[in-house]
Structures
1.
Amino acid sequence: MKIIIHSDRPNKIKDQWDQFQNLIRSHLPDMELEALESNGHLYEKLDHPLHRVTVLISIVTNPDEIDHLLSLKPLLDNIKTILVLPPRSLEIMESALRLTPTFITYYDSNAMDVISVLHKIYQNQKGRS
Amino acid sequence: MAQVLIIDDDPAICPLFSTLLEEMGHKCKIANTLKHGRMLSMAENFDLVLLDMKLPDGNGLDLMPELAESPGRPEVIIITGTGDLGGAELAFKYGAWDYVQKPFLLDEVTLPITRALQYRSEKQTNTQPVPLNRSEIIGESGSIRKCLEEVAKASSTDVSVLITGETGTGKEIFARAIHDNSKRSGHPFVAIDCGALPDTLVENTLFGHEKGAFTGAGNKQDGLLVQARGGTVLLDEVGDLPLETQKSFLRTLQERCVRPIGGKKEIPVNIRLVAATNLDLDSMVKEKKFREDLLYRIRAMEIKLPPLRERGEDIEAITIRKLHTLSRQYQMEPKAVSSEFIQTLSAHDWPGNVRELINTLEYALASAGTDPTLFPKHLPPKFRMSGLKFQGDLPGSSPGIPDSGGKLPLFTVFRNQMEKKYLKALIQKAGGDRKAACRISGISQSRLYGLLRKHGLSGFGRS
C-alpha cells in the first residue's frame, strides 16, 4: 500500500509533519511512505496514470490548500484521502467536506486515529485481493 | 384505446381475453408461442402484455427483460398456473404489474388490466421530461436507464434511499446524482465510508464529541451528521456499521437529533440519508449482524445497480468518454480506439465493474505512450489471454457448465455468458455478413442487433 503524506507548508506544522511520519514508519513499517512538501510535488506525483498511490494524508494549514486539493479532485478519485485540519475552522471544514475524504481529523486529535484508519484500509485491501 | 398483446397457447383463454379487451374498448393481438410474441412485441408498440408463463417453446418470464427494452415498454400481467406462487414471486422480481392465476373469473382480470392501463396512461400524460443532471453516469442500456428513472424519483423526494450493487458499480456517483438533482443540492454532500473507519472511530465521526469526552478530546467537535446541515449524507458500506452504532444511528433517524459523545444536550440534524452497500443486508439481518428496524428505515427506496457484465452495451460509451476525460486530466493527446480494443474489453467479465474498467483504461493509456490508437496489445496481458481462451470454447466443443468450487453460477449469468459466446462464434462464422448470420442462427435481424447491443458486440461492417 502506497501512502503519500503532503503539506504545502510543512515548516508551519513541523510537529504534526514529523509525528505522522514517525508513527506511520513505526506502526506500518511495510507501507511505502513518501513525503511531498509542496502542492507542485503532489500534482506531479498524481498527474500520470499508474501512480499506485492508495492513501493521501494531507495536513492542511489554510483554505488555499483545500482549494488546491479541490482542483485536483479528479486525480483523487481512486485514492483514499485523510485530511488533518486546524481545529475550529468552519471555512476549511466546509471546503474539506466537498473533497468527500475518507477521514477527517484535527491537529489536536489523537494522531493514532490516523494509524487505525490506515490499518483498516490495509485490511480491506488485503481482503479484496 | 390501448394496444394489448396476448401471449398464451391456451385455445380457450385467448378468445376470452380478446373478447374482454374488445369490450373494454381496446385492440389486441394474439401470439401462441414465445417466438411469435417476441416478434410482435419488437415490431409494435404495445401498452400491455398478458403473458403466460408456460409456453410451448419456453418460459414467458424469459421475455420480460426484452419487453422492458421493447419500443413500447409495456406493462406486463403474468398468467400463472394454479398454486404457482413461486412463479408469481419471480414475475414481480422481473417487474410485472400483476399476475392472475388460472382458472380465473373475468372480474379477476378486468381490474388488473384496467389499473395497469390507467397507470400507463397517467404516466404518459404526466411525463414531462425533466432534465436530469446525470453527473458522471454513462450509459444508455435499459438497466441504467431504469436506475436513472429511480434517481429522478428519489431526487424529487426526501425519502431514505439504499443503493445496492457490487464493488465498483458507481454507488457513490448515483448517490451524488440523487443529491445534485434534489432540493438539497445547495447544501453539503457528505460521504462517510463506514468500511474504512475502525469501530472505535465511527460514532465519533458520525456524532462528534464534547470537550474532555475521552482522552485526546481537547476540543468540542461536531460530527459529520451535524456538519451536513440540510444536505445529503451518504453512508457508504453501511453494512460495516457496528451494531452499537446502528442502534444510536437508528435513534438519530427516528428523533432527528444526535447526542455527541460525552454530551448531555441533543443537537437537531436536518439531513437526507442515502446508504450504500455491496452486502446482502437481508441475510445480515437473519444472522443478527444488522438491525432489521434500521434496514427498514434506510430502505424506504432501493436502487439496485447492475454489474457491468450485465450492461455490456455500455462498455463502449464508458470507454470513449473516460478515455477522453483521462486524456484531458493527464494532458495527453486524445487517442483513437480500435474496434478490436472495444471487443476485447467487451469480452471481459469485469468483476471489479466500472472502477476496474477505468483502471484498465489508465493502464492502456500509459502503455500506449505516444501511439495514436489503442489496440488490444495496450491492455494488461490477462485481457489478451481471455480472448485466446474464448476461441477454445466455441459451441460444439462442449464447454460444459462452469463450476467454481462446487457452486453453480446464477442461471442468468451463465445464460448471458453462453449467449455472448454463441454470438461471437456466429460473427466469425458469418464472416461479417448479417444476412448470413440471421440465416445460420434462425433469429431475426432486429433480434440479432438487440443481442449484439446487449453484449456490447459489433462485427457487421463497423471499423
2.
Amino acid sequence: MDIRDVENLAQLARIELSEVEKKNLLLDLGGILEYVKQVEGAAKAEKPKTENNIYNIWREDDLVARQFSRELILKQFPDAKDGFLKVKKIL
Amino acid sequence: MIDLKNLTIEKAHQDFLDKKYSCRALTEEYLKVIKQRNKELNIYLEVFEDALKQAEQADKIFAEGKATKMTGIPVAIKDNILFENHVVSAGSKILENYKATYDSTVVRKLKEVGAVILGRTNMDEFAMGVSTENSAYGVTKNPHDTERVPGGSSGGSTAAVAIDGALVALGSDTAGSCRQPAAFCGVVGLKPTYGAVSRHGLIAMGSSLDVIGPIGKNVADVETIFNLIKGSDEMDSTSIPENFYPKKNVAKPVIGIPRTFLKEGIDERILTNLEEVIKKLKSLGYECKDVDLPFVKYSVPSYYIITPAEISANMARFDGMRFGVHKDGANLNDDYFKTKGYGFGKEVKRRILVGTYVLSAGYYDAFYNKATTVRGLIADDFRKSFERVDLILTPTTAGPAFKIGEKVNDPVKMYLEDIFTAPANLTGLPAISIPSGFVEEAGKKLPLGIQFIAPHQREDLLFKIGRAFEIVRG
C-alpha cells in the first residue's frame, strides 16, 4: 500500500485529508490490514453449517402518515428556501 | 438526603409509593451529584433542561395511580440514542448541535412510562472505540481512578451509573461497548440478543451488530429495563418478537468455559479472578465443563473487516447537506470533502477507509467474503457448544481499566480489547457483564467483570445466573 492508495480511498469516501493525516493513515491502515488478513487462512478450512436465515422483510406499499417533526428537519437545513433544501449547483 | 448508593429500581418505586420522597426530589438528588462531579469526570455531554419537568410529570402519573416500575426512574442515555428535540451528536463534531427530529423507540417507551431522561452521556465518536478517548468532546474519566479510561464506547453511561449520577443508563453494544465499560466501571451491562431491542432511533454504526443495552448497578435493575425496552418494532425490520428462537428447557444451566481461548495475552489477575468465580459457581452446584471454540480467535480480525465495511456505508449520510455541520467548499463535491474532513475524527476516518478498502473490487473476496465466512464458522462453534452447555463463561476483558493515552495511538492494540466481547455481536447472542471483584494498582481498586453468554433470546438464563452469582459474590 502506498500514499496513492490512501488518496484513492479518501476520494471514494469523499473525505479531505491533510498530508500529515495521509501519512499516519498509511501506517495505521497497513497495520490494521496486516492484522485482519488472517481471516483468509481461517476461511479456507471449511464452509459454515449455521444456516444463513436472513431474509427480507417487506411492508405493504400503503401511504401511512408518520410522526416526524417537519419543522425540526427544515430548521436544521444548512441553507433553505421556501421549505426546500438549497445546495450548490450539481451540473 | 436520599441514599442513592443502595437504591434500586424496586426500592425507588416502593419509596415513591410510600411517599418517602417525590420523583422530583429524587431527580434533584441525581442532578446534584452530576453538578458536583461532571466537570471533573466529563460523563454527561448535556444534562437536559427538562429533566425536572419530566420528574414532575412522573409525580402526576403516581398521583393518578397509573405508575409502573420505571415511572420516575432517572435514566441516562448514550449520545447516540435519539430523543426528539434534544441534541444528539454521537460524540462527534459532525453532529454538533444536531437535534433529534424523532424519538427512538427506546426513548418512546421510557417516555410512555414516565421515566426521567436526565441527559446524554459521553461516548467514543459514533461508538468507535473502547475507551471513550475517541470522543470529540474529551475523554470521560473512570470514577475508580481518574487517570484511567472508563472503557468504551458507552463509557459515559457506565460511569454515570457508577457515581450515582443516574440510577440506570442505556448504552449501545457493537463489539462490547456496554459490557467492557461496565466491567471497567464496576457495574452490570447487558448486550441483548440482536433484534431483541429496536434500533429505530439508534445512530447506526454496524447495522448487523448494533444493539441497545441497559446498564445498572445490579442484575435485577438491568432486567427491569430490558423488559421495558425489548420487543419487535415495525420501524426496525431486524427486530424480533418474543419466542422468535426456540427455547430449550433448562433446569440448572451447565456452564462452559473455553479454556483454550483463555491463554495468550491475558492478565494473570484476570485468570485468577475467573477461577474464583468458577469456584463460587461450583459451590452453588453449577456444573462447569470445558468447551472448544476453535474459530473464536478470529473474532476480532473478522469483526474489524465486517464492521468498517458497514461503517463506510452508514457514515456516508453525514455529508453536511441536510443536517449536522456544513463546511463550505468551492463546489458541491468540495462541500462533502471539507465537511467530512472537518467533522470526522481519526478513528472514524480510519474505519471508513478500511471499510472502503475491504469492499472494493479486488479485495472484496479476500477480506469481506472471507470475514463473513469466518463469522459463520464462529456461529457454528457456539451452536455446537450450546448443544453441550447452556451458558459460556469468560472474563469480560483481558485486563482492568487501562490508563488514558496508553492505547489510543495503537489501533490494533485497542481492537484487541474486544477479544471476549466481539463474538457475541458477530453471532447475535446475548451476553452480560457482571462485576466480579477488584485488582489493586497504586492504591486504587480497579473493578473486574465476568461475562456470561447465552443462546439466542435466553436473557432469562443470564439474569438467573447473574442474580445467583451476585448473592454468592457478596
